[in-house]
Write a structure and sequence with these properties.
Blueprint: E1 2-7, E2 14-18, H1 20-36, E3 43-48, H2 54-69, E4 73-79, H3 88-101, E5 106-115, E6 118-125
Parallel strand pairs: 3-4
Antiparallel strand pairs: 1-2, 4-6, 5-6
């Protein structure tokens, strides 16, 4: 047993008789438990080029989709080389097309912004979506839903 001073500023000082080793151990266990419950923000990066082919775009779109389903943020980078930087609208169109195609899984956190030879955009997973499947929407129609015939 140890004599531990709890409140040295108090008059008279407050002390407690305790097992200090056990107290330190309990503190470390509590700290470990609180670290377990924390979530870390993971940012994955996917890079595109302005002259990307259709099949390559689909492969990278699926990768972005998978990252968003896993609740990770995605930094999408459009890299311009040579004279490609004179046409940033091409890169902007590709990033817009990507954002529209993964809208069921994520939303724009940072809109596309040109910085030097790179255009970057950050997508974040949708909030409140606990499941990893896309949202299902009812088909939109102008007609009212049919009611079953009344039995007589």
């Amino acid at each position: 047993m140890d004599l531990v001073e709890v409140a040295p500023e108090a008059r008279p000082p407050v002390v407690r008789l305790m097992d200090y080793g056990k107290y330190k151990y309990d503190q470390s266990v509590k700290a470990r438990e609180s670290r377990k419950k924390q979530t870390r923000t993971v940012i994955k990066e996917v890079q595109f080029r302005p002259k990307i082919g259709a099949s390559d775009f689909e492969v990278k779109r699926k990768r972005v989709e998978r990252f968003l389903r896993d609740h990770d943020k995605v930094k999408v980078t459009m890299r311009f080389r040579g004279r490609e930087v004179t046409h940033p609208e091409i890169g902007n169109e590709i990033l817009d097309r990507l954002q529209k195609s993964v809208a069921d899984y994520g939303e724009i956190e940072t809109p596309p912004r040109l910085e030097g030879r790179h255009m970057t955009m950050v997508l974040a997973p949708l909030r409140g979506s606990g499941r990893s499947e896309p949202r299902e929407e009812a088909p939109a129609s102008d007609e009212p839903a049919e009611e079953p015939p009344a039995e007589e």
